[in-house]
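Student: Hello, beginner here. Can you help me understand the protein record under this note? Any guidance would be welcome.
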Amino acid sequence: AEYMGRIFENNMHPNALGPALVTAFFAILTIKSGVHTISEGYVGVYWRAGKLQDFIGEAGINYMMPFIDRMEEVQITMQTDKVSNIPCGTSGGVIIEFSSIEVVNRLDPKYVHSIIRAFGVNYDRIWIFDKIHHEINQFCSSHTLQEVYVDQFSTLDESLAVALQNDIDKYAPGIQIIAVRVTKPIIPREILAGYIAMESEKTKLLTAVQQAKVARQLAETEKIKAEIAAEQAASVSLIDKQRLVREKETEKRIREIEDEMFVSREKAHADAELYRVKQQSEANKLLFTPEFLQHAAMQSITTNTKIYFGEKIPTAVIDQITNKNP
């Protein structure tokens, strides 16, 4: 404490005040130069005296040794690397150029240290920019202009993404290829004119084919409508015929029932008449006795206004009445 007091007294001496202020200023400036911030979505990678350190700084305020440490921010969120002006030659010797290929990628935070140690902060220069140039030239050299420009262009982005990811997984795990977007390549003007003419003719052909399809569809639609109308008419006719048959069957059944009722009534009447006649016959048998019949005959003779003359007439009449033979 006594020693520090003497130092303070010496520094407070008018002759020592200037150097003290300068020393304090440089101390503050040195401390301040060591304080730094890391943006959100990034991590800090540090080198001390040129050697990569094992620790990684997170987003926010951090501190490093001034004049000794060096820090670089490394993005760990999704980023898009745009590779421009990529020339290549097709298998037929035509030189074309891809004006732009975009690669959406992301570095896994767990692999930041190993990737930076192996490939540096500009790791994407090796595994994306240079790799895209290599893959495009490989693709073009093994395909014709027609295949590159038309036939296989729609799948080029997917094949590039697969090729990049396969090599990265093998040699630089931790980099994720999310998507690849490829623009249409630039081809020589005279060849482009031919493609435009070919596309025009193809468009005309497609238009004609489409019109033919529409015409066929319309014809099919009209045919289906006609079939539906015919089926409906046939169904209606069948329903009408079935209804008419049912009506006729109903009428027939009604007539049969009426006939059965008529026969039943007539049979009942006949049975009743037969019964009456039988009863009357039985009654007559009981009523028309010989005595009754003789009495009725006599009454009939007495009431008869006609008289017949002859020898045997009286005898014949009386004998008939009395049931005697002459």
Summary: The mean pLDDT is 82.
